[in-house]
Amino acid sequence: MTVPLEVGRDKSIAALDEAMSGDRLIILAAQRAARVSDPSPDDIYEMGTVSEIKQLVRLPDGTVRVVVEGKERARILDFIDADPCYMVKVQLEPTDGQYGPELEALARNALHEFEQYAKLSKRLPPEIIATLADLDEPGRLADEIAAHLPMRVEDKQALLEALDTRDRLERLSVVLRSELEILELERKINARVRRQMEKTQKEYYLREQMRAIQKELGDRDDKSSEINELREKIEKCDFPPDVRDKAQRELDKLEHMPPMSAETVVVRNYLDWLLGIPWGVFTDDRLDIKQAEQVLDEDHWGLEKVKERILEFLAVRQLSDELRGPILCLVGPPGVGKTSLGKSIARALGRKFVRFSLGGMRDEAEIRGHRRTYVGAMPGKIVQLMKQAGTMNPVILLDEVDKMSSDFRGDPSSALLEVLDPEQNREFGDHYMEVTVDLSNVLFITTANNL
After folding, report:
1. pLDDT of residue 97
2. Is the CB of residue 449 less than 8 Å from the CB of residue 400?
3. Tag placement on the chain: N or C end, fewer CB within 10 Å?
4. Of 45, 46, 53, 3, nearest to 24 (Cα)?
5. pLDDT band at 317, cuts 50/70/90?
6. Is the pTM of this model over 0.85?
């Protein structure tokens, strides 16, 4: 058969020139490794094809385009010269040229499988089948079919070295069956992708139709109304500038998402949490020492030293409004009234009271929250307590602070340092919220059984 080739190596071009100056015969042999730019004799397969140069054209970029016609198999016996090109001694290897019912059956089977391959691949012109059907020689039929298959060099070389026609046809049948299975899988994958694309396009078309119908009927678009509602809430909320920018970006992202997308639910929940934090909402402190003493006496009998220390703490708060990060720690056995004292302090100050038990906590994400990349992620307990309280200056009671422990998930006590340290809690970072929350106005009270 005749094939076109493009030649660019100096040695290969020199070999073509040498052949053109003589009988135009050249032996074509494949490399064992295509990445080798200057192959040695060991890098070249021994079995090749003696071919005749039919046409040679030199291109402006220095390469040569040549048309060659394969004549006969040949085995390279020895390399005689290597400069300017390889000169070799070869031995012709004619095929057996067998005929018979068995070979005829193998040839028909190979031709039938190749017809199926041509129909599935759609990359081969239909006249190839007619050309192959006219071939009477089984060995030549096998060679012609192999030339049109996308096989690896090793597989093509194995067919070239198969001098027995029956062996060659059997090898070719195995390759054809493998290619047919691959093409069938490709067809199924393409069909599945096409169905999915058609389904997506159909859903988009139907949604657009529904939107147009709702607009004509005067019905509100649910998603548009939801986006407008969120936009109004963001505009009314007293966000810090960086938090407002974050909320606007997330709202813009939500607006361009498909309603049924899983990411839509994640962004929607995030905006709910962002709007749920009481940004800029504060309660006025009631710093009346006599009123505080009365509240403490109403709620608790005895505990004079504890009450006196609490009143001293409130008196200092009354004298200095700039006092930041006050922390009270109430220590005592269970049942002596530590938690109820915290409630009394909140009632005396006129602040909201929320409580969080730290007993048995092992995961620092309970305080700092989980990142939004995780399924079911939520903010940490501190942010949840701020939302529950509804103000930015509640009294937060951290119960049983001595019962925390650490394991492979982290150390909650280290995370709690950022919450309680007045130099850090101005910009408390929650992993889920991805914005800083100011905890400097929160009154933290901790309780413990042992120190």
Report:
1. 64
2. yes
3. C
4. 53
5. confident
6. no
Paired with 448 in beta bridges are: 331
* CATH ID of 289-448, from 3.30.2130.10, 3.40.50.300, 1.10.390.10, 1.20.1080.10: 3.40.50.300
Query: Which tokens sit at 422?
Result: 């007045």
Within 10 Å of residue 156's Cβ, how many Cβ atoms? 15
Q: How confident is the model at residue 327 (pLDDT cuts 50, 70, 90)?
A: confident
> 2-92: which CATH architecture?
Roll (2.30)
Q: Please give the pLDDT value at position 158.
A: 86
Here the tokens at position 333 are: 């056995």
Cα distance between residue 151 and residue 449, in whole Å: 77
For residues 336-355, average pLDDT: 85
Answer yes or no: are the C-beta atoms of 271 and 250 closer than 8 Å: yes
Q: What does the pLDDT look like over 231-256, one tens digit per residue?
A: 888 888 888 888 889 888 888 888 87
Separation between Cα atoms, residue 125 and residue 119, nearest integer Å: 10
Query: CA Rg, the chain, in Å?
Result: 42
CA–CA separation, 371 and 365 (whole Å): 9
Q: Structure tokens of 161? A: 């070295």
* 41-95 confidence digits (pLDDT tens): 888 898 998 999 998 999 888 889 999 988 888 998 888 888 888 888 888 888 7
CB of 56 within 8 A of CB of 63? no
Cβ atoms within 10 A of the Cβ of 253, count? 14
Decide: residue 219, CB within 10 A, 0-12 exposed, 13-18 middle, 19+ buried.
Answer: exposed
Q: Which residue has the tokens 């800083």?
A: 436
User: Please, are residues 144 and 135 in contact by the beta-carbon 8 Å criterion?
Assistant: yes
Q: What's the token pair of residue 302?
A: 């005895």
Confidence of residue 326 (pLDDT cuts 50, 70, 90): low
Number of helices and strands (H, E) in the chain? 15, 11
> Are the C-beta atoms of 144 and 168 separated by less than 8 Å?
no
Dist. CA 434–CA 335, nearest whole Å? 39
Which amino acid is residue 236, in one-letter code? K
Q: Which 3-state string (H, E, C) describes 7-18? A: ECCHHHHHHHHH
96-219 placed in CATH 1.20.58.1480: yes
Q: CA–CA separation, 175 vs 300, rounded Å?
A: 91
- 419 to 283, 323, 385, 448: CA distances (angstroms): 20, 17, 13, 17
Residue with tokens 């925390």: 404
Give yes or no for a cis peptide into 241 (omega within 30° of 0).
Answer: no
**Which comes out higher in pLDDT, residue 435 or 96?**
435
DSSP reduced 3-state for 51: strand
